[in-house]
Structures are given as structure tokens and as C-alpha cells.
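Take one record.
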Amino acid sequence: MIAIDGQPILTAAQMHAAEDAAIAAGTSVTALMQRAGEGIAAAARRLSAGADILVLCGPGNNGGDGYVAATTLARLGHPVRVAAGAPPKTDAAIAARAGWTGPIEPLAETAPAPVLIDCLFGTGVTRPLAPEIDATLALLSRAARLVIAADLPSGTDADSARAPDWATDHPVTLTLALGALKPAHVLHPAAAACGTIRLIDLAIDRPDTVAVAGGPTLPQPGAASHKYTRGMVAIVTGAMEGAARLAAVAALRSGAGYVTLYGGSGQGGPDAIVHRPYDPEALADDRIGAILIGPGLGRDDEARARLAALIAADTHRLVIDGDALHLLDPDALRDRRNPVVLTPHAGEFRALFGTPDGALIDQARSAAARAAAIVVLKGATTIVASPTHARVHPAGNPWLSTAGTGDVLAGTIAAQLAQPHADPLAAADAGVWLHARAARIVGKSFIADDLANALTPARAGA
């Protein structure tokens, strides 16, 4: 079993194409099924503590994986039973069924077991389960103390992340993604139904244009570093200075060497924050690595004018967040030379882009293409997308649902974007990762100020 950090995410069609390519290169379907079934068996044997195992097998190749797993467990002397809802239909599944020498119980009549392995249906499912199968799975899963899903809980739509009722009401313990992760492993509601997710490697080539975020490689200061080479962040503020100060503290504590607030009263926050009046000419300073606009900006005519001036000037990298997203025409960004990062939550995303076609990851990439920008779509799963790539952060923290945490994220991203020669997608990805790490450090019932301060130990440990 492999942890999912950094692992590629494939749609159902991409997964089938990857398997077809492996078969064309000389790996048989039977060999892939053997790898999957043996991986499932190894995980179940490791976690079951010797308890009886019930394997549910469907008619397709997912069921074939189950027959291989059951055969492997029996060969190792582990107590195992098999139940099936229908006979196997594919050649590989029929061959796997032939390797099982024990009885096969009817699915509707089988008795529960302490450990349940669900191999009924895999990534090919696009319709909800029949009610009687959903009810049987619900009964068997509730009676088990350990439930393992092979690839996905049966009835899950791999691409849309629609989850079946039985697993929504009673999430499985462990989902073993076969060969690659699917969107349903990281997008809700299915991600919650999958429980803990681990990968079984099938030794096939997989595109990594979309992947789970891994730990970033962050720049470290050297002997010749100074405050400007560490990255200077300028924050354009307005009516609500507290939000801008939170972003400024976050930028400093996540690695920026110099942070200046332009606008506001010129007071408040740590002494390390530099306060200056709003001045478009000062914002042309070529030492500035990135400009953040949105936290504390307001939505009046003056705020609109400040945003328009920054977009038109096109002198620096921009992070556009909060209030500024409500004033933005994303099509106005298309002709810019300097990169832009947009940080909408779901409501702001819909206001900016409507509902593009496809599942959530595809929507984020479509929005990034339209705006010619990096889009950070915030939520229970946060997606960092360019027009061609995406990095997915599935471990959302519900304690982040408090005022100001988005301002902290914007400042964190701006600090990464301000680094010399920073790749915009990697910078946004690193900012989201640091923000999540800081949230884990502060734990529960924190305020945004705590989160911003926790970026120092988060950055130190990275």
C-alpha cells in the first residue's frame, strides 16, 4: 500500500487507456488482475488480525480482482468466503473465478463477516446501484469491523464523485486505488465515503498532469540572501485593514523577506510590516516580487480603480483574492505578460466563471484557461489549476471555516509567488500546502491570527 501524496489522478477513460497501453506493451489483463488481487489480499491479511474475510465479487474485472484476492488468502491459510451477485463475464474474470476452489454464496443470502472486501463494481459504474444491492452492501458493511473497497466503494462514479448511499451513510475503512487514483478518491462526496485511501501499484505508466499535491521544495536563504532576494510582497488594501494585515503577517511568516501595505491608516500589526500610502507609482518598484490585492480592499469605486490600474499596468505578478474577485472580469487578464493567481471559493468561482463543463478538476482547469491564470479553487478539496495541469489537496480542514483564513492563504501564496523565478503553479501549490500544514499545527478552534502565526513552524518544518 502506497500513500497518495504526489500520486497521479486519472479519469476512468484515462485509466482504461493506461491499461490498454500496458497490454499493448506486453502485459496481459490477467497479469494486471493478479497484481491487483494479490495487493488486495496482502492489505486485508495485514489488517484483519486473522479474522474471517468475506469477499464480494461482481461480474467484471473488479470481481476478477476479488477472486484472485480470495484465492491468494486461501492459499495462505486465511479463513475466507466468497459471495457473488452474478457470474463473471470477462475472460480474465472467468479465469480468475476458475482459480477459486471454494463455494460461492449468493450475494443476497450471504452472512456477514468481521472483514468485508467489496469487489462488486469498479470504475465502469456510471449509474446508481440497484436498491437491493445497495441494501445488501449496507447490511454487510455495518456488520463488519473492517471494510475494504477495491478501487472504489461499489456504486461510486469515478469521475463525478457521486457516492452510493451505503458508503455515504457508513464510510468504508480503507479504499485501495488500483493502478492510479481517480477523481472520486479526492472529490466529495465520494472522498468521504472512501475512508483512508492507499494505492496499489500495478506497474503501468500514468500521466501526471493531474496529481495529489506532495510536499513542495521550498527555497532556503543562503549566505548572499537579503530581504529583497527573499521576495518582496506588496499588498494593496482599502476599507478593512485587518484582513490585509493578516495577509501581511502570513506572507512574512511563510518566507517573504519584505512586506508592505499600501493604503489604509498606516497603523497596526507587527512592526515588521511596512505601511505606506497608496501610490500607483510606488507599486511600479521593480524590487516587488508579487502584489496581492483583495484582502481588506472593499468593493467601492476606489477599490475597482485600484484593481483596474494593477491589471492594466502589468508590471508584476498578481494574487487576486477576496473583494477583488467580486470586481474582476477574468477575461481582462488574458493579455497580461505577468502571471496571475486567482483564489476563489466555490461561490466566487461560480460568479466569475459560471459552471464549466466536466467534474470539478476539469472546471478549475477550464477556468484557468479562460483567464490565462492559475486558479486556486478553495473548498473541502482545494484544487490548484493551470490550463494544462492541476494539483489537488484533498485533506481539507473544517476548522478553517472561520473568518480571515482565506486572507492568510492569499498572503502565503503571494510570498511563494514573490520568490525569484518561482513557477506560478508550484508557488500556489506550495502556498496551499503550507496553509494546510499550519492548520494542522494549531489544531482546533483557532482564529486566523493563530493560523498566520503558525506559518513560522510550518515553514521551518518544510
Remarks:
- Residues 139 and 154 are 14 Å apart (CA to CA).
- The mean pLDDT is 94.
- The chain has two domains: 12-209, 232-460.
